[in-house]
Amino acid sequence: MKIEYLGSEEFFIPKAIIALRNLEGIPLFHSEKSFRHPLESYSITFADVFQKTVTLIENLQSIDSDLAYLGNKKQGWEEKLSSDTDNWLDSIIQHIDTCKGILSCFFSKDEEKKKNKCITLFSKEIEQYRKEVATIVNLIKHHQRFVRIIYFHWIGGFVPGYFIEGIFQEGVIGPDPLVHKRGNTAISFNRNLPLHICNILFISNILSQSIYEITKRSISIKNQEPYKNDYLTKALKSLSLSKMIYFPDEIKKPVPYIRWHLKENNEIKILIEMPSKICKISSVPDKCRIQIAMRFGEVYRTYKIPYFGDRVPI
Question: How far is CA 3 from CA 199, 204, 279, in A?
């Protein structure tokens, strides 16, 4: 999918916001379900995703600029990064599920079949992406998995990421094979951050189309009030400058691309695209260090490290 925008910053408005602002005279049933107004629900969870995205980005920038990953320069940064990542993923799945709940607000209790059909069609559009996020969040929340930090570094280079730690095999902990192929991969922030932001904005477009199918009201930016979300702006600007260096297995995966450009007349030009063939990506170099933040408890003493093949070196 692709989103392109040219205009003033305050009128880069998620399409779902535009659609949900345009509901005057449309029957809504959020009160009988004890839900918030759909516009309120969407705007709060959308803003939360971007607030937590910016928190994560700023943490990563601080770690990189301070060289906190070298030696014992700073203690505890891995734990905070792991916690920020966990919270960020939580906010994403909450927002996705809120979008589904918003659609139910257009139908009364007597319109169950219509409601189910609408939500099913929307769910099919986002099914693959939601499944990827939900699998990780569900494993963390309900199956005793943990977010662990991994990073590649070399002279002049630092590429951090994470993996979901679980049971690799009997008696061995490591990357969970339910998320990581053969327990031998991880997830770089360089790819994962723009990937999720692209998808959140694509879902906004899909939700707006679903709302149009219900209300038959066209979505136009004309006569719209400005939309101010400093976290959205910060996230898009930062990710527009992100490094295109991925973990080894990510090179063959679809590339998410975000471009934010300020033109001479103070208009902004935004491109959000996935998969993209515009940018050149590269893998971490062959000769670099891999380090992970691991924790041992009272039982397990063997650990599988990503990118070491089928070996269990620790």
Answer: 11, 11, 16
Tracing tokens 């930062």 back to the chain, one arrives at: 238
User: Tokens 């009997």 identify what position?
Assistant: 170
Q: What is the CA radius of gyration of the chain?
A: 21
* Cβ-based neighbour number of residue 10 at 10 Å: 14
Does the N-terminal peptide bond of residue 160 adopt cis geometry, omega within 30 degrees of 0? no
Give the strand pairing for 282-283 and 245-246: parallel
> For 34-50, what is each residue's pLDDT tens digit?
999 999 999 999 999 99
Give the pLDDT confidence of 20-31 residue by residue, as tens digits.
999 989 999 999
Residue 175 near residue 290 (C-beta atoms within 8 A): no
- CA of residue 281 relative to chain centroid, distance: 19
Q: Which two tokens stand for residue 128?
A: 């693959």
How far is residue 40's CA from residue 55's CA, in Å, rounded to a whole number? 22
- Calculate what percentage of the chain has a pLDDT beyond 70: 95
- Contacts of 153 by beta carbon, 8 Å cutoff, 6+ apart: 69, 70, 159, 288, 289, 291
In whole angstroms, give the CA distance from residue 202 to residue 197: 9
Determine the Cα–Cα distance for residues 97 and 45; give it in Å rounded to an integer.
10
Rounded mean pLDDT of 67-71? 80
Amino acid identity of 106? F
Query: Rounded CA gap, 302 and 143, in Å?
Result: 20
DSSP 33: G
Q: Convert 247-271 to b/e letters by CB count within 10 Å (16 or more is b).
A: bbbbeeeebbbbbbeeeeeeebebb
Distance, in Å, from the CA atom of 148 to the CA atom of 134, rounded to the nearest integer, reads: 17
pLDDT in tens, 207-228: 999 999 999 877 666 667 889 8
Read off the pLDDT of residues 136-186 as tens digits, 9 standing for 90 and up. 999 999 999 999 999 999 998 999 999 999 988 888 899 999 999 999 999
Structure tokens at 140: 């963390």
Single-letter amino acid, residue 42 = Y
